[in-house]
């Protein structure tokens, strides 16, 4: 292949100006990532990218090459303490991507026996979640959120539904009482939204988790936090907090993108809006073609090595483009023979998502509940006018405005108190307006108890 055969760099890419690294930040990448992936494939299976100003990485865009990295921990480690550029002081300390890439003592950033110990604790704790209970709880949260906007006739399905639902579901999974749950909702949503309150949000999240761990040491319950604490791995309080941060982060940001992107597809694609395909099909479609976490899974070569078209040095930062690998043109002839779940949106190998089945159940249940309660809902703006949040890691809408015929709020029968997994909340009258910032969990518990 000659240079004239390579696809032209997408608009806004510094390759137009002779730059070597392709930026995965800014509105140009968010608006049309596939154009960037097409250009990156011209380098070969792995290409040089810039995640943020001053933060360089190599991005794997080839499906087979991605599996080679993900399934070969002896050659490509996960421990972020190997990140050479960071260790040498080349990474700006205030870079917005460092919190997603820096080392934490959790099962995402560890290898070998330590990874197995932490991973087993997380996997076993999640295995205690009953799918039937989880489905019922998601329906309750969905009904509550819908009741907050159903009389208006308009809604931002991203910020008023897809964003809040995973946060409230995880509060129940973790066994949060009202005051701690409110802090986790505020902290988690603030971290992912960024902005001037991000530091305060991080403090709230950390303090909330410290209080939750302290509470569960004294009063364990039937919840993920307590099971994690009681596991044979004997996690310290610090390890507990870092596993919980990982669970909340992995269970909320990707989940909200999966729900929102699934709703967007269903509301704009006649294959789904016409009733020909199921919600499960839409979720599989999104996972293949618009992976909610588009570029992540940081790895580091253990030693200098030649990989694909590139010479990699030990400690180089490598990311996997789940989005580009899933849409690898070389799969076009074989994809029909692959399992519908053969996509890499859940990653693969020893660090594959341990909660993919619950995550799929949450997304499907949330979408089905919304469509059943508001069957005439439709997109309120042309699909081409939707905007996507900039960032190297996610494929995330900024908003998803929709409209429908207003209906009076309805509430499903709540599960009996003995089926709940969290401490009981003090009954209050059901809120009639959108909860104040920082009180979503308290408002939901009060609504549930009425």
Automatic annotation (TrEMBL):
<protein>
    <submittedName>
        <fullName>Cytochrome P450</fullName>
    </submittedName>
</protein>
<feature type="region of interest" description="Disordered">
    <location>
        <begin position="408"/>
        <end position="439"/>
    </location>
</feature>
<dbReference type="InterPro" id="IPR036396">
    <property type="entry name" value="Cyt_P450_sf"/>
</dbReference>
<dbReference type="InterPro" id="IPR002397">
    <property type="entry name" value="Cyt_P450_B"/>
</dbReference>
<dbReference type="GO" id="GO:0016705">
    <property type="term" value="F:oxidoreductase activity, acting on paired donors, with incorporation or reduction of molecular oxygen"/>
</dbReference>
<feature type="compositionally biased region" description="Polar residues">
    <location>
        <begin position="419"/>
        <end position="432"/>
    </location>
</feature>
<dbReference type="GO" id="GO:0020037">
    <property type="term" value="F:heme binding"/>
</dbReference>
<dbReference type="GO" id="GO:0005506">
    <property type="term" value="F:iron ion binding"/>
</dbReference>
<comment type="similarity">
    <text>Belongs to the cytochrome P450 family.</text>
</comment>
<dbReference type="GO" id="GO:0004497">
    <property type="term" value="F:monooxygenase activity"/>
</dbReference>
<feature type="region of interest" description="Disordered">
    <location>
        <begin position="1"/>
        <end position="25"/>
    </location>
</feature>
């Amino acid at each position: 292949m000659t240079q004239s055969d390579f696809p032209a760099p997408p608009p806004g890419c510094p390759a137009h100006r002779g730059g070597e690294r392709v930026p995965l930040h800014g509105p140009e990448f968010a608006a049309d990532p596939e154009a960037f992936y097409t250009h990156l494939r011209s380098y070969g299976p792995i290409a040089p990218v810039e995640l943020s100003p001053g933060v360089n990485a190599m991005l794997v865009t080839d499906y087979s090459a991605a599996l080679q990295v993900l399934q070969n921990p002896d050659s490509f480690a996960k421990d972020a303490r190997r990140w050479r550029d960071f260790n040498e002081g080349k990474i700006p300390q205030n870079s917005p991507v460092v919190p997603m890439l820096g080392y934490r003592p959790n099962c995402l950033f560890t290898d070998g026996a330590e990874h197995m110990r932490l991973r087993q604790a997380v996997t076993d704790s999640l295995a205690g979640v009953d799918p039937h209970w989880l489905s019922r709880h998601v329906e309750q949260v969905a009904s509550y959120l819908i009741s907050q906007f159903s009389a208006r006739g308009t809604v931002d399905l991203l910020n008023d539904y897809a964003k809040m639902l995973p946060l409230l579901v995880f509060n129940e999974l973790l066994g949060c009482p009202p005051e701690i749950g409110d802090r986790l909702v505020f902290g988690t949503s603030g971290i992912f939204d960024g902005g001037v309150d991000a530091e305060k949000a991080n403090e709230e999240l950390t303090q909330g988790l410290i209080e939750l761990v302290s509470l569960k040491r004294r009063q364990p319950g039937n919840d993920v936090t307590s099971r994690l604490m009681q596991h044979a791995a004997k996690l310290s309080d610090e390890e507990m907090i870092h596993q919980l941060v990982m669970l909340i982060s992995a269970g909320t940001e990707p989940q909200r993108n999966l729900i929102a992107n699934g709703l967007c597809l269903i509301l704009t694609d006649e294959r789904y809006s016409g009733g020909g395909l199921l919600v499960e099909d839409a979720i599989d479609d999104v996972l293949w073609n618009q992976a909610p976490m588009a570029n992540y899974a940081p790895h580091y070569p253990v030693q200098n090595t030649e990989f694909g078209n590139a010479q990699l040095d030990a400690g180089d930062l490598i990311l996997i483009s789940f989005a580009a690998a899933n849409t690898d043109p070389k799969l076009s002839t074989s994809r029909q023979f692959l399992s519908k779940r053969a996509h890499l949106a859940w990653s693969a190998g020893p660090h594959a998502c341990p909660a993919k089945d619950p995550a799929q159940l949450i997304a499907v249940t949330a979408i089905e509940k919304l469509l059943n309660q508001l069957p005439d809902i439709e997109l309120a703006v042309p699909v081409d006018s939707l905007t996507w949040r900039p960032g190297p890691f996610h494929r995330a809408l900024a908003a998803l405005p929709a409209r429908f015929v207003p209906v009076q709020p309805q509430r499903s029968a709540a599960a009996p108190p003995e089926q709940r997994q969290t401490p009981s909340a003090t009954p209050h009258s059901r809120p009639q307006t959108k909860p104040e910032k920082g009180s979503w969990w308290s408002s939901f518990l009060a609504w549930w108890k009425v």
